[in-house]
Amino acid sequence: MPLRVRNLLEQLGDELILKIELGRTPVQGFPIKILNFLSHSKFTDKQLELGYDEIYHNYLLITIKNSQGPHTLQHMLGNIRLNVSARTILKLEKAQRIALKPPSIPDELIDVYDIPLTPDKPLTLNRLISTASNVDKNFYTYDAGENNMCQTFVENIIDINGQIITRTHIRKQLPYRYNHVKELILNDPYMHENIVDLSKVQSLTVNTSDWPLYKIVTLIKRVIPCVNYLCLNCIHPKLQYKTFPNLSLPQIQILSLLQYGQFIGNDTFNWSKLFPCIERLIASINSKRQISSLIDHFKNMISAFFSIDHNHIDMNH
Fold first, then answer.
1. Where are the extended beta strands (E) located within 66-213?
2. Are residues 120 and 233 in the same domain?
3. DSSP collapsed to 3 states, 139-165
4. Does residue 291 sit within a domain?
5. DSSP per residue, 231-296
6. Residue 104, domain member (yes or no)
7. 124 and 189, same structural domain?
8. CA distances, 192 to each of 50, 159, 196, 211 (Å)
9. Which domain holds residue 111?
């Protein structure tokens, strides 16, 4: 821990936290060059890899009760006014090192989001930092190449202190971490909120069978309006259209059913009701019968590509 941070915690670490806010400011120009130089160009490489359209520096604005003096600092989001009890605002951030210091004004007013605290669970500055640092082994290290930057630093503090910080309210307010994402691949059933802005996704691939087809279709219908390519690399046995009342995705024009060859027997599910506007189809099959079945389903189809699933081939058909 840096000496300045340690000294400040010795003075104010046991003071009660009154408010926590997430702040962020855009990183542009010369600071980007500095970060690239210090990380041997890993910073820009990571930006391209993760799909950031704009880089923001994230930090926490922490308002604490200052019982050591009567001086009251300006509230970050309001007008200057005196409070009954003295308070101090500190900025907690990670650049090359952990920093804890008074914020500059008005530079910190670019983007600020309130993070509600649980009223009946008091939290001090020492507890906030020690709880996070005891769990996060990379708390004090900065590595752009390993995605251990200010964003993960702030996110981990919030997650690790989740019993005290009201996380359900955070999800409704925090800005999206990835914007303008056009291609999305889901490899596991867990999706955190406020990570990706789904409204611009055009290509969706699902590689997990833990998501039922109803959940996938509902997700697309509700929050992914622009998707036109859907790849289902997963198994959904015993499908019945009555499970999908009044659900239809006419925006899907290209459909890929990479595990369709694992269907055994007659496929009675009416795919065309769910996907009425399919123009191109890609599917694995285990018999000629499946080819004719899919062609019958998609009357508007212009082209189709079928591959044989050798693991489930039906030699009789």
1. 87-94, 98-101, 111-115, 183-186, 203-206
2. no
3. CCCCEHHHCECHHHHHHHHHHHCCCCE
4. yes
5. EE-S---S--GGGSTT---TT--EEEETTGGG--S-----HHHHSTT--EEEEEESSHHHHHHHHH
6. yes
7. no
8. 16, 12, 9, 15
9. 3-173
Q: What are phi and psi of 71, to 5 degrees?
A: -70, 135
pLDDT tens column, 230-252: 999 987 655 655 566 678 999 99
* Strand pairing category for 87-94 and 98-101: antiparallel
Q: Which residue has the tokens 């039922």?
A: 212
123 with 209, same domain? Answer: no
pTM score of the predicted model: 0.49
Neighbours of 109 (CB within 10 A): 14
Task: Reply yes or no: is the peptide bond before residue 106 cis, omega within 30 of 0.
Answer: yes
Domain boundary among the residues 149, 173, 197 is at 173
Evaluate whether residue 166 is within a structural domain. yes
In tens digits, what is the pLDDT along the chain, a chain of 317 residues? 778 888 888 888 888 899 888 887 776 655 556 666 656 666 666 555 555 546 677 888 999 887 765 443 443 334 444 444 578 888 888 877 788 888 775 554 557 778 888 777 888 888 988 888 888 777 777 665 555 567 778 878 887 877 555 554 444 455 555 667 889 998 876 665 556 778 889 999 999 888 888 888 888 988 899 999 999 998 765 565 556 667 899 999 999 999 888 876 556 778 888 999 999 999 998 888 889 888 988 988 999 999 987 665 555 54
Quote the number of domains for the chain: 2
Do the beta carbons of residue 288 and residue 262 sit within 8 Å?
no
- Total length of the chain: 317
> Where a domain ends, among 139, 173, 207?
173
257 domain-assigned: yes
SS3 39: coil
